[in-house]
C-alpha cells in the first residue's frame, strides 16, 4: 500500500518559503527548462523535492503552478506601476511617494495595484529575472541547497528617483524604429520577420558608427554594455540607444554607473 504523503497548505507570503521557491524556479529557467510563459513539466517534481529539503514541507504540482501564476501577476502589476508612476518611486523605501488623489485615480483603473500602495514587491529583482525575460548570468552567494550555485540575477526594473525626459527628435526616431511602408502587411511570414530584424540590427549598427566621433564616451562603448542587458527586440534597447545618441551627459552617466541594476533602472526612468 502506497505511503500517504501529507500535503502542506501553501503560504507564499512567508519570505523564506517564497525566496526558496523563486530561486528554484530561476535555476530551472536558467538551465533550459523554460517553456513559453512557464516551466517544463519535468521541472515541477524537482522543485517539489528541493522545497521539501529546504523548508521541510511537501507541496504538490498544482500548488507550485498556482504560486507561479500568482507571483507572475504580482510582477506584471508592479511592472505596470513602475512604468506609469516611476517618477514617484522612492528607492530607499522601495515604495511610491504619490499624492492621495494620484493613487486613487490609478487604483480606479488598476485596483490590483493596491497591494503596493504601502509596501514594495517582495523579491522584485528575482521576479524581474524570472518574468521579465532577463536570465541569470553569473555566480550567486547563498544558493539553495541541492542545486548548483551558478545562477544569479543581474537586473531589476527599479527606476531612478528622478526621471529624465528626452526631447523629441523625429529624424532619429525614424532611424531607430521599424521602417513602415504603405504596402506593409500586418502579419508577415517568419522568414520575413527575421530578415526585418536583421535589417534593424544593421541599421542600429550604422547609426552608432555615425556617432562614434562625438565627445565623451562613444555610442559604441555604451551600446556594447547595453547589448549585454537586452536584445534589440526589447523596447528598452531603443530607449537607451536613443539617449546615447542625444547627449554626451547621458553616455557619461551610463559609463559611470557601477551595476546592471542601476543601468536598467535608469533606462526605465527614460520612458514617458
UniProtKB/TrEMBL annotation:
Pfam families: Myb_DNA-bind_3 (PF12776). Residues 12-106 form the Myb/SANT-like domain. It comes from the Eukaryota. This is Myb/SANT-like domain-containing protein. It comes from Vitis vinifera.
